[in-house]
Write a structure and sequence with these properties.
This is Integral membrane protein. By secondary structure, this protein is mostly helical. Helix content is 84%, strand content 0%.
């Protein structure tokens, strides 16, 4: 907190947006002196890389759309036809029935005998072993309670009086003071010989050098980012220029030739040559069909005449009474009777 009020003619310079965004102090002259050459060098280095990258991206997309995707679809269809469908049929019609038969065979040859052996043999034997184990456990519990526990209590009291109490006294009054003295000596020796020189080296050498390297690294990273974006814009502009140049040199002349030369010539050829040829071909086809139809009718009539001359005229079929009501006897809207119920 500033305890003094600012004078009327002096105002504090506001920090830049970049400094406020990153939460650091305004940059010094060293950062400004490093930034411009680093960004120029980064732009010169990154621009060819970005242009090559954009060209590779365009080529890769074209290859993906025109070659790799159709090839992948063809491979997927081929794999489905050659592998998936045969394997599915093999699994469904061969392996599944065989597996079911093997499972049923294993069930009758292994599972059923094993279940019978477990129920009829192993279970009674296990019950007998469990009964023996309970008896042995009761015997061991009696031995532990009546014999081992009193002996253990006596040995514990004897070890406490002969070993533990003297060892505690030696640790408390001999080893602990000696260890504290040795630790204090080692601590101060290590502090004077190692810690203080390392701390001085860290504070007065490594920290300033690290700050300078951090500034340089940050500026290099920022410069590379700016150079990559600027190179992207330049690469886009070059690509658009090359596209426009290709369009004006190749596409537009080809389009003009197609519209101004080939299209009128095609119309003339269509109207003067192709359309009359098409009409003539249609007329020839129509005449041929008519001639073929007339020949077919003549052949049919000749065959009929030959059959009539050899076998005679066919007999006419007798008329069949289908019991259809006449017009006078049919049912009308004004009557309630029909031809079948009428007297």
């Amino acid at each position: 907190m500033d305890l003094e009020k600012p004078q009327a003619g002096h105002r504090k310079v506001p920090e830049g947006p970049e400094s406020r965004a990153h939460g650091r102090e305004p940059e010094g002259c060293l950062v400004v002196a490093i930034r411009l050459p680093v960004r120029i060098v980064a732009l010169v280095v990154v621009l060819p890389v970005r242009m090559v990258w954009d060209a590779l991206v365009v080529v890769g997309r074209m290859l993906r759309d025109t070659v790799l995707r159709p090839f992948g679809k063809a491979l997927a269809w081929l794999g489905k036809v050659l592998f998936v469908r045969p394997l599915g049929a093999l699994w469904r019609w061969v392996l599944v029935p065989v597996g079911r038969g093997l499972g049923r065979l294993v069930e009758w040859l292994v599972v059923v005998p094993a279940v019978w052996l477990y129920r009829r043999v192993l279970t009674p034997v296990g019950h007998g072993i469990a009964w023996l184990a309970r008896g042995l456990r009761a015997a061991l519990a009696w031995v532990h309670q009546r014999l081992l526990t009193p002996v253990g209590h006596g040995l514990r009291w004897l070890m406490r009086r002969l070993v533990v109490v003297p060892a505690v006294w030696v640790y408390r009054w001999v080893l602990a003071p000696a260890g504290r003295a040795v630790a204090w000596t080692v601590y101060w020796a290590g502090r004077v010989l190692f810690v203080l020189p390392v701390l001085a080296l860290w504070r007065w050498v490594l920290v300033p050098a690290g700050r300078v390297l951090a500034v340089v690294g940050r500026e290099v990273r920022t410069a590379l980012g700016h150079a990559w974006r600027v190179a992207g814009h330049l690469s886009l502009a070059v690509g658009r220029f090359l596209g426009a140049l290709f369009r004006w040199i190749f596409v537009e002349p080809v389009r003009w030739v197609y519209r101004s030369v080939l299209t009128p010539v095609g119309h003339v050829v269509r109207d003067a040559v192709l359309r009359p040829l098409t009409q003539a071909a249609r007329a020839v086809g129509r005449s041929g069909r008519q001639a073929l139809t007339a020949a077919r009718e003549s052949l049919r009539q000749a065959r009929y005449d030959v059959r009539r001359a050899l076998f005679g005229a066919p007999r006419e079929r007798a008329a069949v009474d289908r019991r259809e009501p006449a017009a006078r006897g049919a049912r009308t809207l004004g009557r309630s009777t029909t031809a079948l119920t009428k007297d």
